[in-house]
Amino acid sequence: MAKIKGIVVCPQPRAADVGAEILRRGGNAFDAALATAFCQMVQDPFMCGIGGMGTLQFRDAKTGRQGMIDFHARAGAKVRADMWAADSKGKSEISGYALFEDQRAELGYTAIMTPGTVAGFAHFHAQFCTMDWADLLAPAITMARDGMLVTPFFRDFLERKPQPGLPSGMQRVTKTKACAALYLNQAGQLHEVGDRLVHAEMARTLERLATH
Fold first, then answer.
1. Helices 29-43 and 117-128 sit at what angle, rounded to 10 degrees?
2. Residue 33 is part of which domain span?
3. Percent of the chain beyond pLDDT 90?
4. Helix 200-210 × helix 133-146 angle, to 10°
5. Could you please report the per-residue DSSP string of 40-79?
6. Has residue 60 been placed in a domain?
7. Which of 52, 107, 129, 196 could join 147 in a cystine, given CB atoms 3.0 to 4.6 angstroms apart?
8. In-domain check, residue 177
9. Is the four-CA dihedral 156, 151, 121, 206 of positive or negative sign?
10. Burial 20-37 (b: 16+ CB within 10 A, else e)
């Protein structure tokens, strides 16, 4: 039995396939992780994206160096800790999200923060990766341009009953006409499992990132 040189694990199989291909092409584990992460954004847009944030844990097997890169989102300069305190209706059962009758912390411009994902990934790339940034984004660009297949989870996210006090998936994607056009069919209905969704705008955004 051949020795396993590496393994790629993530929720979406097509993204994992890309990571494995990066390893076969001679990239290191960090290269594979970065390419996989960008593909996850295309395949699983409700769970991750360039407009998000996160924490990246790493260990370099060659040097023994290990640590964590935080790239959390930042609130606007005029945000104050107590600005909505009087309007809060409690916290969600899971994760403890603040609840408001108008869902201001979940929907619309008041829910937006400055994302940290791209900056965090760029820092990670500069520190650990061996392949060019553009080459690692290329598979995700192709995926977005060619389209992704609607999975059972994708549809379930839009149909499932939300936590009490939080908006449903459908409320989230229909908040604006532009968002609804991305995730619903021309009749404004849910796509069926197996339908192909093309994300041309995401492809163009990733292409722009690839050159900067």
1. 160
2. 11-72+115-148+197-212
3. 76
4. 170
5. HHHH-TTT--TT--EEEEEE-TTT--EEEEEE--B--TT-
6. yes
7. 196
8. no
9. negative
10. bebbeeebbbbbbbbbbb
Longest Cα–Cα distance in the chain:
64
Token reading at 183: 């995730």
Beta carbons within 10 angstroms of residue 195's beta carbon: 14
Residue 48 belongs to a domain: yes
Tokens of 121: 């990934």
Residue type, 82: D
For residue 5, pLDDT beyond 80: no
- Region at 142 (left for phi over 0; alpha for psi -120 to 50; beta for the rest): alpha
**Per-residue pLDDT at 59:** 92
pTM score: 0.90
How far apart (Å, rounded) are the C-alpha atoms in residues 87 and 83?
9
| Interstrand relation of 66-71 and 54-59 (parallel, antiparallel or unpaired) | antiparallel
**pLDDT one-digit tens code per residue, 77-126:** 999 989 999 999 999 888 888 899 999 999 999 999 999 999 999 999 99
Return the SS3 of 151: coil
Q: Is residue 208 part of a domain?
A: yes
Are residues 18 and 31 in contact, defined by beta-carbon separation less than 8 angstroms?
A: no
Q: And the tokens for 35?
A: 């390419």
